[in-house]
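Example 406, ligand arginine.
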Amino acid sequence: MATKVVLAYSGGLDTSVAIPWLKENYDAEVITLTADMGGGSGRSDVRERAIAAGASKAFVVDGRQDFVRHFVFPALQAGAIYQGQYSLATALGRPLIARYLLDVAHQEGAGVVAHGCTGKGNDQVRFDLSIAGMDPSLRIIAPAREWGMSREEEIEYGRSRNTPLDLGPRSPYSVDENLWGRSIEAGDLEDPWMEPPEEAYAWTVSAENAPDTPLYVEVTFSEGIPVALDGEEMNGVDLIGHLSRLAGEHGVGRVDHVEDRLVGIKSREVYEAPAATALHAAHRALEAVTLSKDQLRLKERIAQEYAEHVYNGLWFTALHQDLEAFVASTQRYVTGSIRLKLFKGRCVVVGRSSPYSLYLHDLATYDTGDRFDHRASEGFIHIFGLAGRTQARVQSLELPELGGGS
Ligand code: ARG
C-alpha cells in the first residue's frame, strides 16, 4: 500500500513538481493542502491543478481569519518586528500552514507530511519545527531539499510527467505573500548596493508617486486589537485589507534591508507591509500613553525575544506561550484611538486618545493649571544614591582652559 503524504501545495513550480516526484520516489499517495492566507496570491484553480498533477485529494482552506486572530494580532500586540525591520508576514504564516497539514494528516491517517522549501531558507526550519512541536511522530519530507534539480531541470521533469506548470511570464523574484505582507527576494535584489527597481513592488507606490495631499486615518484598538478604522467596526481581515490599500497608495510600508537568516547567512530582503507598518506604529503609540514606563521598557525586550522566536520557527514551544502570556497581560488597558497621517511614504502618529490614558494634562502642562509639585523634583538627586558620599568616586572630567569666550 502506498504511503500517504500530505503536501503543502501552493501551486507554484516546486510544489507542483513535488507531486509526481513524491509518487515516484516514495511510492506515495499524495494529498495536497493549500491555505489561502490572503494577500491576493491564491489561485482559484489550485484544486484542479493539484488533481491534474496527480494528487488523490486536494484540500483548500481559507486560513485568513485563523491567521489574523491567532498569529497576526498576537504578534502585533507583542510589537514583534525582526531586527527592527521585518513584521514577519512569511514567518507568521508557516506555523499555521503546518497546523493545517497536521490536521489533514490526522484526518486522512497519513504518517508523512511534505513541504516545498529548499535547504537554504528559514521556511524549511519553520515547517519542520512547527510540525515536530505539535506531533513529533509525523515524518517530514522536503523534496526540494533532496532532489538537487535546477529550475530548468524541474520544468523538464514536470513537463515529462504532464504536470500543469503554468509558468507565465517569469518573475525575476522569489515572492511570498499573505495579508500581513509581501516578501521579495533574489534576482537583481541580490546586489545590496542596487536600489530595488519599481517592478519589485506590487502593493505600494513610491513616495515620489504618492498623492500630494496627506490622508488621515483613525485606528481604534480594544485591548491591543485593532477593531475599527475611521470609526467603522470591521473584522480583522477586512481592516487589514482596507488599511493595506490606503497605506500602500501613500507609499507606506516599503522595507529594504539585509537580514540575518537563521541558517546563518545574510540576505538582502525587500518587503511591502503597509498595514503592518501602520498598525505597529499606531499600537506602539497607544501603548506609550496606556502603559507605565517600566512596562514599556520590559515589553520592548520581550518584543525582541518574541520576534526572534517567531523568525526562528519556534511558535509551538513552551517559551512562546510564556511570552504570549506576558504580552496578553500588558494589553488589558491598550484601548483607545490613534490618528495616523499617511503622506509620501511616511506614516506618522499625530493624535492619541484613550479612556485609560496615563497622560495627565494637569501634570504635563507648562501653563497655568500645572499641578506638578516642582519641589518634589528636588528629591530626584537621590537617584544617584547619597550624592555627597559617592562624589569622591567620580572621575573628574578634564577640560582645556576655557578660552576667551567671556
Ligand atoms: N526572509 C523572509 C523570512 O524568512 C521572507 C522569506 C520569503 N520566502 C520566499 N519564498 N520568498 O521570513
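Summary: Residues 90-91, 122-123, 174-176, 183, 185, 259, 269 surround arginine (CB under 6 Å).
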